[in-house]
Amino acid sequence: MKNEYTAIVKQEGDWWIGWIEEIPGVNCQEATHDELLESLKVTLQEALAFNREEALANAGAHYREERIAI
Fold first, then answer.
1. pLDDT value for 1
2. Rounded to whole angstroms, how far apart are CA atoms 31 and 16?
3. Contact 69, 55 (CB under 8 A)
4. Which pLDDT score, from 0 to 100, does residue 47 have?
5. 15-20: strand order across its sheet
């Protein structure tokens, strides 16, 4: 399954800054637009992996995972 997220990006002086609209805390700053997009992708992947690991650890035993779509 391939998920899509919305990157909000803008140039502030010499820097490009951006964040992922749907995931709080995923934000980056880079010197170029391309570097920013790559940094946002890596940071988003790390955040999703961390959130998944944390959710599974908090679930304890006897849980099940179910997919939902909106």
1. 59
2. 6
3. no
4. 97
5. 7-12, 15-20, 27-30
